[in-house]
Amino acid sequence: MKFFFLLIASFILSIIWPHKSNGSSFPILSDSTTISLLTESPASDFYTAWGHSAIRINDRLNKIDEVFNFGTFDFNDEYFYLKFIQGTLRYTESIYNYSDYLASAYQDPHRIVEQELNLSQLQKQKISDELFRLYLPENRYYLYDWTKVNCSTKLRDVLQTGIGKDFFISNEIKQGATSFREHEEPYLYSDLWMKFATNIVIGSPADRLITPYEETFMPDGLYGALKTMRLLNGQTLISSELIVLQGKKSQNSITLISPVLLFWLLFLAVVGFSFNATASRMIDLMLFSICGLLGIFFLYLWFVSDHAETRYNWNILWAFPLHLIYPALRNKARKYYSFFIVFLTILMLSAWGIIPQKLEPAVIAILMIQNTRALFNLGMQDLLNKVFSPPT
């Protein structure tokens, strides 16, 4: 009798227990469950410069209110920066309670918008199962890719898996299409130095026109795509939208010295100091050593790194790796290389509008600095002395 009672009790529990599903450990959602996309504006940390995306599952009946986030990484990971540059840094999915998510957001207030999705019960369950499947230890980690695999695209793929045919974003280039670079730049105008650094590292692949589907690599791109998406029955995918956290009003930080201003001031300083032999040698050593090392770094990102967007970088024309040896050259070798620098300057300036890559305006000033030093090393100072020296 006792055995019979335990058998009946086990059968009943197997039906009503929300965390059992066909032998899996994935929760069974109730009919009252809501699933929504959380889109965050940029916060104060540099890695949040382009915003963030997460998914919330709220099942009040089963007391489930969790946020799924694919943008987690470990700063304490061994060789963190090397792995990040190489493109082998592992990102992971994290799950945390919604109340903890909000508490963390309030510590660094930034705008958070919640879009509740208009889904069937089956679609909700599929999305939940996929999120929990990806959280399994063997699926939890992934290699981050700026435009292809990130916190936003991972959620897009989860939604596409769960929603099925109702989920459609065009993968054709539309009229007025823009590039990856044009999508990321507006987020960097408040920090012109970060914009400069980002743009000189990213190569020409970031300048190709992209489709609406590819635009979802940005959290705001995914937000906009879902906002305009319609289901096969004609209804909108978004059933409601709520501002969860207004955050602080975005205020552009004041950059006292922008890259353009700084490099043009340096150009004037280089012209002035170029009339002094000792100062000229120091300028050549610092200027071309830095440019040469940058060139080696660009080559590494181009040929060794796994980041596809850092290849075919035309900034290699001013950050030329062989510039590193220029200060040590003498006599004819120095003269020939000076002509080479002038040639690179003319080539890059004349092809400015033809090069299939958007270049930073400050690069023009850098080219003029290099060109000035090359011309002085070719004897321009002697020519100027003859022109401006008083007649005897």
What does this entry look like structurally?
The protein has 392 residues and is α+β, with helices and mostly antiparallel strands. The chain folds into 2 domains: 194 residues, endopeptidase fold (from Nostoc punctiforme), CATH 3.90.1720; 130 residues. Helices cover 44% and strands 12% of the residues. It is built from 13 helices and 7 strands. A 7-stranded antiparallel beta sheet has the order 6-4-3-2-1-5-7. The N terminus is likely disordered.
Would you kindly provide a brief summary of this structure?
The chain is α+β, with helices and mostly antiparallel strands. It has helices spanning 2-16, 80-86, 98-107, 121-134, 151-163, 180-184, 192-201, 219-228, 259-273, 277-304, 331-350, 362-377, 380-388, and strands at 34-40, 52-59, 64-72, 90-97, 112-117, 141-143, 238-245.
Keywords:
disordered N terminus; 44% helix; alpha+beta; 13 helices; 392 residues; endopeptidase fold (from Nostoc punctiforme); 2 domains; seven-stranded antiparallel β-sheet
- Widest sheet, order of strands: 6-4-3-2-1-5-7
**Main structural class:** alpha+beta
The biggest sheet amounts to: 7 strands, antiparallel
The total count of helices amounts to 13
Shape descriptor: elongated
Helix amount, in percent?
Answer: 40-55%
Topology as H/E string?
A: HEEEHEHEHEHHHHEHHHHH
Query: How many structural domains?
Result: 2
- Cα end-to-end separation: 127 Å
Which residues sit in consecutive blocks of at least 5 with pLDDT less than 50? Answer: 1-23
The CATH architecture of the largest domain: Alpha-Beta Complex
Radius of gyration: 28 Å
Total strands: the figure is 7
The amount of beta strand, in percent, is 5-15%
Mean pLDDT over all positions: 89
CATH topology of the largest domain: endopeptidase fold (from Nostoc punctiforme)
CATH class of the largest domain: Alpha Beta
